[in-house]
Queue: 4 jobs
Job 1
Amino acid sequence: MAISVPGLAIRLPDGRVASYEEMREYGQTLQHFIVEQEAVLAQIEDTQRHNEIIDYLNLLAGGYNEQLCAYKAAEAQRQQEMLVILLRLGG
């Protein structure tokens, strides 16, 4: 019996411009996808295919983590800019 692992059906958001909701939704979808694939891994007997799936999941998680860091940096920058504006207006 051949078992295939489908790719994640949604695009990774660009953390520099993504909204909180976009990042959260992708993170939840990715988490669900990884759990599904971990269940499939138990059925795979071919070590090479097993490792390919693990590498793919690590690639997806790594890409998300990079964009999450970009999102957090951009969000911190936006908050800092807002603070400067508020200080100028109030000050």
Note: The two ends are 70 Å apart (CA to CA).
Job 2
Amino acid sequence: MMEKTAKIFVAGHRGMVGGAVCRALAAAGYSNVVTRTHSELDLLDPAAVRTFYEAERPDVAVIAAARVGGIGANSAANSRFLYENEMIAMNTVWGAAEAGVKRLLFLGSTCIYPRMAPQPIPEDALLTGPLEKTNEGYALAKISGLKLCEFLRRERGLLYHSLMPTNLYGQGDNYDIEHGHVLPTLIRKFETAKDRVILWGTGSAIREFLHVDDLAAACLFALSMDDPPDLMNVGSGEEVTIRELAEAVKTATGSTAEIVWDSTKPDGTPRKLCDTSLIRSLGWAPKISLKEGLALAVASYRAELAAGTIRL
């Protein structure tokens, strides 16, 4: 059980996931939360990370920092996604262990699993087949991070464990049309469209989406456990084709734009649903449906745009 007085470092607090974790910690009564902006702490610099850990000595670290992007960004820059995410994972996890941080939660993504993994994807599908090429660099880095946590737990007795969330969306998302993830990209496209919206692929790919506030709740749930599994999937259990998702976002935004599919662009992994039976059996379950979550996400987009805080 994580004490309310615990000093908690949240890496990546300005991102969607880190921001949601900070909000959840505050709502749960955790007031000793430590954060650093990129200008204050470069997570790609191992010496700087070591110095930070040694100075702050947090009781717990939550690693939510990452370079993220959609199919286009990943496939165009697999090398950068591999290098930067590998460095972030190695520096934050190894640095924590060297500084004596007793507990760490590492956040990854279900893209760590093979492209043709069994559906729903169980945790033991890891490393059983080839990865999806369009985001292979990111996936390899996240695999390294979760494996480092596993090894450190086994060898040093440190309570380092990982959560692998499915596709996320919600407050604080990145709405970069060229490099963003599918759902925030859809929201921005429909919010700004006049006559039509051009979308990648055929719309046939099947995906699962989880509101980021549900993930934050799962993080606190995992941190409340005295002996959590090394790795747990986190997802909504709701499947939807990208075509169905596009129609749902169109409805949520109130757009009248025509949807046009560019089949010369890739769909990515054909289907990706994670098996969340493990974490559900331990007592966690999502609370926000896709319909409710889309309404919240559209409202967040509009509020952030009006406030000038939107990430583009």
Note: The mean pLDDT is 94.
Job 3
Amino acid sequence: MNRLLEKLAILLICIPAFFMFGDDSLTVASLLIAVSASAVVQLLTGKRVAAVIIVVVCVLSGWLPAIFCALPLLFYDALCEKTWWAAVPAVSVLMHPESLQSGQIICVIAGMVTAAIIYRRVSGLELAVGKLTLLRDEITEKNMQLAEQNNRISEAQNNEIRLATLRERNRIAREIHDNVGHMLTRSILQTGALQIINHDEALKEPLAELKQTLDGAMTSIRSSVHDLHDTSIDLRKAITEMADAVDERFEVSVNYDAGAHIPGEIKLCVAGIVKEGISNAVKHSNGSKIEIVFREHPAFYQLLIKDNGTAAEIGRGGIGLRNMKDRVASVGGRISFTASESGFQIFMTISKEQ
């Protein structure tokens, strides 16, 4: 739309030159040819045929001098198409210099100067807009990178906080186990010894109640310690550490895709299966790769451990496999073992609905 308005302004400068030819059909036809050609050039902008049309129309001005009066319009199109040389054939009008009046030549020159000035200003504006667009894109990219970096920093901070929390829970669990647990155990033993050596009927019932209270406290302490320990297990870290500790002859890959809120008994089960699976692969597999995949789905957890070895004797069964079956059954899960020439695979699923 802007280019049309600019060309309309240039055409208005050229109109007086057309009027100097008088009101005849040839002048009107020449004007229509020039305007139509300019419209087609704009429609085909960026294509080689656009420059060809400008050249053809400029050549025609040698036979139809009235077209020469529209040269500023065609010159502006040539500048926009980066083919200013396409307007050069218009000099063919010099073959009939007597067909043009001085006023017409002045109008054409004024129109061409105006076209050059408009093109220069528009080009500068487009260049400035291009630079601003590039600057905006760079700023947007920098903002996206900054946001991504902030997310990474925030995630790292959250992870550090979570790890610190887990370490503190482990410390508290150890403190309770080592101090309070041991003191309660000693108190229970002392109470039991007092019950054995006591011969006073009046103290039998109080001692029994004391021992019962201490047993209850011990049970509660054990439950609390187990809960703290279970929630402080970082399953991703545990699996990664087990994978990193594998013999160098194996290339171990870990694909972990699960949330942070996994029940403690399931964490212990998965960690135990992974440990046993890696141990079996190291002992029995003659392969070179071990793949560990743990995923959390909406309704269940899934674990896959496989290697690329060809030794299949482990598939016959053993204590390790029975232990894994018992461990998975204790949390209501299912496990299967597949031995083939392409390797050994352990596949386990545990439902979230216990």
Note: The beta strands are 251-257, 289-296, 300-307, 333-340, 343-351.
Job 4
Amino acid sequence: MSDYPPAGPPSTPPPAAGYPVAAPMRPEDQRLWATLIHVGGIIFGFLPALIGYLVLKDRGEFIRDHTKTALNFQLTILIGYIAGYILTLVIIGVVVLLAVWVISIVFAIIAAIAANKGEVYVYPKWCAIPFIK
């Protein structure tokens, strides 16, 4: 007796590495998620944009563009907050924190409104460093 299995037809190859590709989202779902990601940045910082980018970026071009720009904006805002907290050692840090807070709210609302209308929104160059291209 042989220790090898009997010869037979070749086995089917395993499926491609990774997970199956998710189906594209409907346009209205992409608009909803893009709006929620922008508004979520006001409350939870960069986490909604990061999670949305990682989970939804392959579900449609519209959601990919919005999650990417939201993540770039929220990371820039995070840097602003860190700089403001460091500068609280001198009085100007309070002003920096207040300015960053106002900018994050105003531009996130503008982006959420644009996303809800189905428009692509790009944050101004001075308040969003393009970390993710």
Note: Helices lie at 27-44, 47-56, 61-86, 92-117.
